[in-house]
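Below is a filled-in request sheet from our internal design queue. Each sheet records the structural input a requester submitted and the sequence that came back. We keep these sheets so that new team members can see what a complete request looks like end to end.

REQUESTER: design group, bay 2
PRIORITY: normal
MODE: inverse folding
CHAIN LENGTH: 206
BACKBONE (tokenized):
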């Protein structure tokens, strides 16, 4: 065999090896990409399941909790005010979109599709010292009890308890709802005090 033929064969084999390596590398990249996508999908599903489990536990816990009618009315009053506050704050920051956001539910629906609404929503939550989980817990309470609850104005609430925060800590067993209600009370009373600086909200636990 001539040297030239040998060189040609070596070159061909080298080319074949390089092609195989390139194919293996390409297949590896495709496999790695598929694994990353699968991992992300599984992580998303895991988070979704955790969220659903958490929501189910919240509903079950609230349905199992036994509050007196006065306790329900007191909590409902603060929940109603904080949800109205959230809605009003978002609309105030989006005057040109306010007409399309007639309710808090409409805000929560639209924030997933409209980045501007979502950013304002997040800013309002931060301003009030709240988190998404607080809103979910308070909305769950509202949905469960709205048909039976009565709204107590601020002056009427003081007739039933001198320390609403202590009552919440004592009777609300679900920790998520407890913290969300305490947050709602703090926000509502702080904003009321700001509107009336002379008022001292002694019934709010500091």
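RETURNED SEQUENCE:
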């Amino acid at each position: 065999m001539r040297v030239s033929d040998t060189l040609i064969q070596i070159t061909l084999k080298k080319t074949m090896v390089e092609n195989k390596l390139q194919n293996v590398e390409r297949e590896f990249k495709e496999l790695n990409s598929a694994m990353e996508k699968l991992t992300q999908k599984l992580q998303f599903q895991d988070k979704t399941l955790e969220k659903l489990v958490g929501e189910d536990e919240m509903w079950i816990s609230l349905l199992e909790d036994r509050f007196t009618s006065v306790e329900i009315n007191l909590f409902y009053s603060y929940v109603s005010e904080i949800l109205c506050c959230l809605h009003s704050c978002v609309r105030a920051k989006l005057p040109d979109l306010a007409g399309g956001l007639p309710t808090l539910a409409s805000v929560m629906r639209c924030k997933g599709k409209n980045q501007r609404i979502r950013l304002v929503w997040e800013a309002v939550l931060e301003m009030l010292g709240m988190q998404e989980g607080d809103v979910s817990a308070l909305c769950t309470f509202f949905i469960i009890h709205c048909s039976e609850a009565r709204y107590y104005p601020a002056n009427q609430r003081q007739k039933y308890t001198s320390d609403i925060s202590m009552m919440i800590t004592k009777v609300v067993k679900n920790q998520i709802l407890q913290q969300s209600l305490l947050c709602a009370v703090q926000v509502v009373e702080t904003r009321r005090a700001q509107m009336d600086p002379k008022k001292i909200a002694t019934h709010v636990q500091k």
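SHEET NOTES:
- The chain is about 75% helix and 0% strand.
- The radius of gyration is 29 Å.
FILED BY: M.R.
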